[in-house]
Design brief:
This protein has helices at 13-28, 43-49, 75-78, 82-93; strands spanning 2-8, 36-42, 55-58, 70-72. It has 99 residues and is α/β, with parallel strands linked by helices. The relative contact order is 0.25. This is PTS galactitol transporter subunit IIB.
Length: 99
């Protein structure tokens, strides 16, 4: 099981939008989303939770090294560059489409 944490300022609003968009895009690419666990948090809490995840996606600017890859999730809010971001997630986590 691959684990993704999505973070925004509050851990509620834009992280929910980004999480839902990522899940829908992964499904559309044939990825079995039951093999991916997603959680949400706030940016301030991200540092303390990151070691439990394989990938972090933030909807706010975040450049700190937290020991796991961090991707800017803004494309999930704007739609600009969304497909490229989804492909990065797939590549980083080595996700394969289900047969």
């Amino acid at each position: 099981m691959k684990k993704i944490i999505v973070a925004c300022g509050s851990g509620i609003a834009t992280s929910t939008v980004a999480r839902n968009a990522l899940e829908e895009k992964l499904k559309a690419k044939g990825i079995d989303v039951t093999q991916v666990s997603m959680d949400q948090t706030s940016i301030p809490q991200l540092r303390s939770k990151a070691d439990q995840f394989d990938l972090a996606i933030t909807t706010a600017k975040f450049t700190e090294d937290i020991g796991v890859p961090v991707l800017n999730g803004l494309p999930f809010l704007t739609g600009v560059g969304e497909d490229q971001l989804v492909q990065k997630v797939i590549d980083i986590l080595d996700l394969k489409p289900k047969n």
